[in-house]
Design goal:
Elements lengths: L1 H102 L8 H8 L4 H20 L5 H19 L1
GO cellular component, one term: ciliary basal body
Keywords: Coiled coil
């Protein structure tokens, strides 16, 4: 009976050690879980912050793209008006030359710079080609970013449609 009592005490001691070991492991596991939950909250907050930042960047980019389109239109209109002014000036000079001929007098020659300015002005086709290339490049950049793509593509498509309607 004494041996059974010793054997029982040995089992009891071993059980207590195993239970204590399981409690320590549980405590470590709970600490790891708490740390991971905290890290998860931190990552979630970072994602929210980065998402807000991305939305602000996309909004700013969209506004700047619209401003660029407006600049392109203003430049195109100004260049067109300037070219018409140059053409009108050339016609006026031709009229003055004609009057000099009628009067039998010799007209002084204009400098070559005056003539080159008119003929080196970029054509509407080359300006439109550059504009369409820039718009396509920006559409590609926006399509890589899932936020605001639908809104930006719709705006760009409607702008292109209104531009092509105004050309015809």
């Amino acid at each position: 009976m004494a041996t059974q009592s010793l054997l029982l005490q040995g089992y009891n001691g071993e059980l207590i050690k195993l239970i204590d070991d399981m409690r320590k492991r549980k405590k470590e596991l709970l600490k790891e879980m708490k740390d991971e939950e905290e890290e998860g909250r931190h990552v979630h907050n970072e994602i929210r912050s980065l998402t807000d930042r991305l939305m602000n960047i996309n909004k700013s980019l969209s506004e700047k793209m619209e401003a660029r389109v407006q600049f392109d239109r203003a430049i195109e209109n100004t260049e067109s008006s300037y070219k018409r002014l140059l053409e009108a000036s050339e016609m006026m000079i031709q009229g003055v030359r004609h009057n000099y001929k009628i009067l039998g007098e010799e007209m002084p020659e204009a400098s070559s710079e005056d003539h080159d300015t008119l003929h080196n002005f970029p054509s509407r086709a080359s300006r439109m080609s550059r504009l369409n290339t820039n718009i396509s490049r920006n559409d590609t950049l926006l399509s890589r970013n899932p936020t605001n793509v639908t809104r930006n593509n719709t705006n760009t498509s409607s702008k292109r449609a209104s531009r092509s309607n105004s050309k015809t």
